[in-house]
Write a structure and sequence with these properties.
heterodimer; A: four-stranded antiparallel β-sheet; B: 18 helices
Chain lengths: ~180, ~450
C-alpha cells in the first residue's frame, strides 16, 4: 500500500498553538491529531471535537451497580434465608432497607467509577505494554505537535503553518499499515 | 443595573401578608373555638366521622392506647403532658393542647423557614469572602439583599417563641417541668430567660456581621481602585463570623428546634439544620438572580454563574440527604427506645411528609440537576429550586409539628397563611433592600474575574 505523507508542525507555546488551530480550521484543513504535554483548555472546542459521552456511561453503570446491590441483598437477606439477625425486620426489602443503603451506595459508586475508567481505557486504547504512539518525544515535555495529512498540497500547507508560528515543520512518511 | 422595587411587587407582597394574617387569624379562631366546654362534643363528632374512615379511627385508638400504656413510645409532647399530670391527663385535655398549639406551631415553622433562608445566604456570603471566590462577586448584592431579612426575621422567630411559650416549647410550662425529671435535669440549659438571652446574642452576632459586611462592601464600591482595605476588612470579619456562626448555629438548632422534643437529642442535629438552611439559601440566591436577570438587570451574570449555583444546589441537597439519612439510620439501627420515639411518631403520623420530603429534597434535585446542560437552563433551575424550597419547608414542618400537634396536623389555613405572611414580608424586605445600592459590587477586587467567569 502506498505510504501517505503527513506534515508535523511543532509549536512551543499553547497560545500560539490555539491560534494556529483556529487558522488551520478556518482554511478548512483537516487536523489529524494534536499532541500536547498537558491539557490545553479549549483545544477540543477549537478543533471541533464532539463532546465526550463518558459521563452518560458513568450514570448508566451507576444504575447497574444500584440494581446489582438491590437484587443481591434482596435475594440473600430477604428471599433466600430471612434469618432474624439482632431483631432486624427481614420480612420485606423495604422494611430492612436502611441497613442496605450503605452497600447500595458503595456499589453504585464502585460500578460507576470502575466501569467508566475501563470504558475510558478501551475508548482511548490504553493498556499495559501498549506501544506508545508518540511521533516526537519532545511533545511529552514542552513542545506541541499538530499533524495534518498531505494531499499534494505540501507547499501551501507549509507556508500556512509557517505563518501560524510553527518553530519546525517536518514532512513524514507514514505507513498506514503501521497502525 | 439600578433596581427599584416595583409597585406591583410591593403591592403583591402586601397582599400576600394580608392574606396570611387572615389565614393565621382564622387558624387561631378555629383552634380556640374548641375549648374545655365543647371538647367532648368535638371528639364525639370526630368519632362519628371516624366510623366512615375506619383506618383513621383505628390509628387513633392505637396511638391512644400506646400513649397511656407506655409513654416512651408516644411522642415527647404526649409523654411529657401525660407525666405532668401524674398520668391523669385525659384524652380531652391532650387533644385540646394539640388543637391550640397548631396555629402557634404553624407560625413558628414559617417564620423559621424564611429566617433560615437568609441566615443560610449569610453563611454562603461569608464563605465566598473567606474563600476569596473568583466567580461569585457579581452575586454579592443579591446575597446582601437576601441577608437583610436576618435581623427582622430572626427577631420574629424569637418573638413567636416568646409569646407561644409552652404552646411550642413544652419545657417552658412549669407545671410540666415540676413532674418531669428528665426536663428538670436539663433546666440549667432549658430556661426561658436564658433561652431568650442566648437567642439575642446569636441574632446580635449575625446581624452585626451582616451590618458591617454590607457597609464595607458598599464602601469598597466608592473607594479608590487601589484601595482594598474594605475588602480586607470584610475578609477578616467573614472568617471570624464563620467561626462564630458554626457554634451559634449549632446551639441555635438545639434551642429553637431540638428543644421542642425535650426528651430527645441527636448529636448531628446542628449540621442537619445547617444543611437545610444552606441549600434553601443557595436556592433562593439562584431564584432571585434568575428573576433579576430576566428583567435585564444583571447583564454581567452569565449562565456559568447559574450553573455554579445549580451545582451548589445539587451538591448541598445530597449533603442534606447524607445527614438526614445518617441521623435516621443510626437511630433506626440501634433502635434505643429513648431516641427512636422521635422517628416512630414521624413515620406513624407523618408518613407522607416525612418520606415525601426525602423525594423532594433528594431524588428530584439528584435526577434533575445531574446533567451539566440542564444546570444552565433557567426554567429548569427554577423548577428544581421551587421543589427544593417546598421540600425544606416540609423538613422544618417535620421537625416542629410532631412535638406540638402530634397526629392532628394538616396543611390548612394557619400553615398556608403563615407561609404567605412570612413569604410576603421576606419579599418586601429583600426587594426593598436590593433597590438600595447598584446591583454590581464594582469595587470588589475579584469583580473582573467574576464578570468573565466561564465554566
Amino acid at each position: 500500500m502506498e505510504a501517505s505523507k503527513v506534515i508535523h508542525a511543532i509549536y512551543t507555546d499553547d497560545d500560539v498553538l490555539m491560534s494556529a488551530v483556529k487558522t488551520v480550521k478556518a482554511e478548512r484543513y483537516h487536523i489529524e491529531e494534536i499532541y500536547t504535554p498537558f491539557p490545553v483548555h479549549g483545544l477540543d472546542k477549537a478543533m471541533g471535537l464532539a463532546p465526550t459521552r463518558l459521563a452518560i456511561t458513568a450514570f448508566l453503570y451507576g444504575a447497574v451497580g444500584l440494581a446489582v446491590a438491590t437484587v443481591m441483598m434482596n435475594y440473600i437477606m430477604i428471599q433466600d434465608w430471612p434469618q432474624d439477625i439482632g431483631g432486624k425486620p427481614s420480612f420485606s426489602f423495604l422494611e430492612n432497607m436502611p441497613a442496605f443503603v450503605p452497600i447500595m451506595f458503595e456499589l453504585t459508586v464502585f460500578f460507576s467509577a470502575h466501569l467508566m475508567v475501563i470504558t475510558f481505557y478501551m475508548r482511548s486504547k490504553i493498556w499495559p505494554f501498549k506501544k506508545a504512539e508518540n511521533p516526537d518525544p519532545r511533545t511529552t515535555d514542552d513542545h506541541f505537535l499538530m499533524e495534518i495529512a498531505v494531499h499534494n498540497n505540501e507547499e501551501s500547507l507549509t507556508n500556512l503553518l509557517k505563518d501560524t508560528g510553527a518553530v519546525e515543520i517536518n514532512i513524514v512518511n507514514k505507513d498506514e499499515d503501521a497502525h | 443595573m439600578e433596581y427599584k422595587i416595583s409597585n406591583r411587587l410591593r403591592t403583591g407582597a402586601i397582599i400576600l401578608m394580608i392574606l396570611g394574617v387572615l389565614g393565621v387569624g382564622y387558624g387561631f379562631m378555629d383552634a380556640y373555638s374548641v375549648n374545655e366546654d365543647n371538647i367532648t362534643e368535638f371528639l364525639a363528632n370526630e368519632d362519628h366521622h371516624g366510623d366512615e374512615h375506619a383506618t383513621e379511627s383505628h390509628g387513633e385508638e392505637h396511638d391512644m392506647s400506646t400513649a397511656h400504656a407506655e409513654e416512651s413510645h408516644a411522642d415527647d409532647a404526649h409523654g411529657a403532658e401525660v407525666e405532668a399530670e401524674g398520668h391523669e391527663m385525659t384524652h380531652e385535655e391532650h387533644v385540646l393542647h394539640q388543637l391550640h398549639n397548631r396555629p402557634y406551631a404553624a407560625l413558628y415553622v414559617a417564620a423559621f423557614f424564611f429566617f433560615m433562608i437568609s441566615l443560610g445566604v449569610l453563611a454562603f456570603y461569608a464563605i465566598q469572602y473567606a474563600a476569596q471566590a473568583g466567580w461569585s462577586p457579581v452575586l454579592f448584592r443579591v446575597m446582601e439583599g437576601i441577608t437583610s431579612y436576618v435581623l427582622p426575621g430572626g427577631a420574629l422567630v424569637l418573638l413567636i417563641a416568646f409569646f407561644a411559650d409552652s404552646h411550642i416549647f413544652i419545657w417552658m410550662d412549669e407545671n410540666v417541668v415540676a413532674h418531669d425529671a428528665i426536663i428538670q435535669n436539663k433546666s440549667g440549659w432549658l430556661d426561658k430567660t436564658w433561652f431568650m438571652i442566648r437567642g439575642l446574642i446569636f441574632l446580635g452576632g449575625w446581624s452585626a456581621y451582616r451590618h458591617f459586611s454590607r457597609k464595607f462592601s458598599v464602601a469598597q464600591d466608592l473607594a479608590d481602585i487601589n484601595d482594598n482595605s474594605n475588602f480586607k476588612k470584610n475578609f477578616r470579619i467573614s472568617a471570624a463570623f464563620l467561626v462564630f456562626y458554626i457554634y451559634t448555629e449549632s446551639i441555635m438548632s438545639w434551642d429553637w428546634i431540638m428543644s421542642v422534643d425535650p426528651h430527645w437529642f441527636s448529636t448531628l442535629f446542628g449540621w442537619y439544620v445547617f444543611a437545610s438552611m444552606f441549600v434553601s439559601g443557595i436556592t433562593v440566591i439562584a431564584l432571585i438572580t434568575i428573576f433579576l436577570k430576566s428583567k435585564g438587570l444583571l447583564p454581567f451574570v452569565n449562565d456559568s454563574h447559574i450553573h455554579d449555583l445549580a451545582k451548589f444546589m445539587f451538591g448541598i441537597s445530597i449533603f442534606w440527604t447524607y445527614l438526614w439519612f445518617s441521623q435516621f439510620m443510626l437511630i433506626w439501627y440501634a433502635n434505643i427506645p429513648e431516641e427512636v420515639t422521635y422517628f416512630v411518631t414521624r413515620i406513624e403520623d407523618y408518613n407522607l411528609p416525612f418520606f415525601g420530603m426525602v423525594a423532594m429534597n433528594f431524588l428530584f434535585p439528584l435526577l434533575l440537576l445531574m446533567n451539566s446542560d440542564y444546570k444552565r437552563i433557567p426554567w429548569f433551575v427554577v423548577m428544581a429550586g421551587v421543589v427544593i424550597l417546598f421540600g425544606h419547608y416540609l423538613d422544618i414542618f417535620n421537625m416542629i409539628m410532631p412535638a406540638t400537634v402530634g397526629d392532628r396536623w394538616f396543611i390548612g389555613f394557619p400553615e398556608i397563611g403563615s407561609v404567605l405572611f412570612f413569604g410576603g414580608l421576606f419579599m418586601l424586605i429583600v426587594f426593598t433592600s436590593l433597590g438600595k445600592y447598584p446591583l454590581l459590587a464594582k469595587g470588589s477586587p475579584f469583580i473582573k474575574e467574576s464578570e468573565h467567569f466561564h465554566y
